[in-house]
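Q: Could you fold this chain for me?
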Amino acid sequence: MTVSYPPKELALAYTSTAKTLHWLMAILFFGLLALGFYMSDLPLSPEKLQYYSWHKWVGVTTFLLVWLRLFWRVTHRPHALPASQPKLMQRAANAGHFLLYGLMIIIPLSGWLMSSAKGIQTVWFGVLPIPDLLSKNKEVGNLLKSIHENLNFLFVAVIAGHIGAALKHHFIDKDDILIRMLPKHAKEN
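A: Sure. Below is the predicted structure, expressed as structure tokens.
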């Protein structure tokens, strides 16, 4: 089956809210990843401690936005994948999205648990203390640090797969999967 490109009639785009949450969270997660990888190799200093505070503040904010995004997705079902896409690819796409959402919850939670176990309370924007989830325990804190770091490497791989799939849809399959999530689109629903 040949798909004309651009499609004569574009499928409905995601809602403005869905697009905003998608791109806002993409920016926040890329920033968190970049800052996290950068700050982890710095020597202990006031600058490093400030970076850790920023990382935690944005992490807590992003964690809350994930729940808002999940609520939106549950109450606003995404559009169907193209019927021309093989069932195996549809399952892979669904599994990829499930993994993305799971990591968007588990990674901030692992960071929160790590901070708790290391005895370093998170104070959101320097104002609101976030309760510790664990008692101070150095060994558990180090284990959670390793888990947090490895989950982030997995997250980078899953994000790369997500971006790769979107580009494949656009440049190889020549369907509208990518463009219906772009900020401007003719038909929104």
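A (continued): Residues 114 and 144 are 5 Å apart (CA to CA).
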